[in-house]
Amino acid sequence: MIFLDSLIFIDWIIGYGLKYSDKLQLTHLGRLK
User: What is the pTM of this model?
Assistant: First the structure.
């Protein structure tokens, strides 16, 4: 159970990180334009 919970937690962090990095890239692209 603990192992499964940690996997879900890691997956959530990775998903959140990807969304956050996408926002950062969008802001950088907006500044370049």
Answer: 0.45
Report the Cα 9 to chain-centroid distance in Å.
12
End-to-end CA distance of the chain: 48
Angstrom CA distances, 31 to 22, 26, 27, stand at 14, 9, 6
Q: Which amino acid is at 22?
A: D
Phi, psi of 30 (to 5 degrees): -60, -40
Task: Express each pLDDT in 1-31 by its tens digit.
Answer: 678 889 889 998 888 888 887 877 777 677 7
* b/e 16-33 (16+ beta carbons within 10 angstroms → b): eeeeeeeeeeeeeeeeee
